[in-house]
Amino acid sequence: MTTVSETISSTQAELEKLVGDLRGLLASKDLDGIPEIKQLRQRLDDGIHSVRDSAVRAAQEAALQAKDAARAADRYAHDEPWRVAGAALAVGALVGFMLARR
């Protein structure tokens, strides 16, 4: 099971690889004779910065929501320990029953 930070890291690594590939393609000396390439390079850089900022904000928001959910679950477990224990017992019994039927 991957964690949020592992997913963020792998996504960021893939994005960086894609950016590197695009920059390498656009940096080709064969393309320097085309006047639109300079504009395309600038738009690409602007887009990359925008996407990177959006990705960072989305990752931070997801991490914040996960922390809030964990805090809520922790509060509930402390406020209602018998309900949590009963639910865990029920899930354990169900899993045990399912495994025993195999």
From TrEMBL:
Q: Which GO terms describe its molecular function?
A: ribosome binding
Membrane topology of the entry? Single-pass membrane protein
Question: What sections of the protein cross the membrane?
Answer: 82-100
| GO CC annotation terms, alphabetical | plasma membrane
Annotated InterPro entries: DUF883_C, DUF883_N, YqjD/ElaB
Residues in DUF883 domain copies: 11-60, 73-102
Localization terms from the record: Cell inner membrane
A single Pfam family it belongs to is: DUF883
The similarity comment for this entry is: Belongs to the ElaB/YgaM/YqjD family.
Q: What is this protein called?
A: DUF883 domain-containing protein
Q: Which organism is it from?
A: Acidovorax ebreus (strain TPSY)
